[in-house]
Design goal:
By secondary structure, this protein is an all-alpha fold. The chain has nine helices and no strands.
Length: about 200
């Protein structure tokens, strides 16, 4: 029984053609992301509150869905763990929605912990693998140090930094993501059907 191997060239041509046909959609999406990102950077407290409320709804809805699924499949193994997980999700969602300021502070503390863990891990990895990383270990070491500095700045600025740091980081992420989409869209616009056609 023979197995037909996928034609990589044909798959690439299909992807290229699809990108070319829908480049305007990617461009619009990228522009929207950049605009929203810039707004978040200019007024980070509002963006921070929006992120907190969004996470609250995500936790609440996923918790309710998990609760329904748990009781629907109550004969399946791990019932109690699934039930506890769903209840915690609902509780977290309610807390974030009813007490947004406390939720923002909690999320900021989680962000600080992430920066500390990421920074320590990067520094340890860079120092332990100097030879394997060759000239790149310095960049990883610097990245870890920057993570720790960011964590210290946010921590020392509490509770004031909690009002803007999440919104600022989300805004920066949206600007970079939107810029990448815009670049991809403009590149896809210039790739016509001829360039997607197979070479003879």
């Amino acid at each position: 029984m023979s197995i037909n191997k996928p034609d990589i060239g044909q798959m690439r041509r299909l992807v290229t053609t699809s990108l070319h046909e829908h480049w305007v959609l990617f461009l619009v999406e990228g522009i929207i992301l950049v605009v929203l990102g810039l707004v978040a950077i200019v007024i980070p407290p509002i963006a921070t509150l929006a992120v907190e409320i969004l996470l609250g709804w995500v936790f609440l809805i996923s918790g309710i869905a998990g609760l329904i699924t748990t009781f629907w499949m109550r004969q399946a193994p791990g019932f109690w763990w699934s039930l506890i997980s769903a209840i915690l999700g609902i509780a977290a969602g309610i807390v974030l929605l009813l007490w947004p300021l406390s939720g923002i502070l909690s999320l900021t503390l989680v962000l600080i912990a992430y920066f500390v863990i990421e920074g320590v891990a990067s520094i340890m990895f860079a120092l332990e693998h100097k030879q394997e990383l060759s000239g790149r270990w310095g960049w990883m070491l610097a990245s870890g140090i920057v993570d720790l500095i960011l964590a210290a700045i946010i921590l020392l600025g509490l509770p004031g930094t909690a009002a803007w740091v999440l919104g600022l980081l989300v805004g920066i992420n949206m600007v970079f993501g939107g810029s990448a989409l815009i670049a991809m869209a403009l590149h896809a616009r210039d790739i016509g059907p001829r360039s997607a056609a197979p070479a003879h």
